[in-house]
Amino acid sequence: MAEPKPRMFDGRISAGSLITIALVISGFAVQWGVMRAEIAAMRDSYGQRIEELEASDKSLFKERMREARDVADMRADMRWIRSTLERLEREWKSRE
Predict the structure, then answer these.
(1) How far is CA 52 from the centre of its chain?
(2) Separation of alpha carbons 50 and 57, rounded Å
């Protein structure tokens, strides 16, 4: 029995092969589009989250500054009370 002669590529591609190649390429294109859409959605989501964090940081900063002013006001009040008490004590001792 004679061995079959190996087929040489003659430059022609069958219709089935062309369809398979087209399907593979279109699948990659669809997958690429889906990935780009997912990346854009993640970018939007992260961008929104970053804006929320920046806004909360600003409000937290304002709250901390308000607290610092309150503490400074309390310290000023305590200095005034201390100086007033010291003055009253000196006046009281000078009257004795």
Answers:
(1) 8
(2) 10
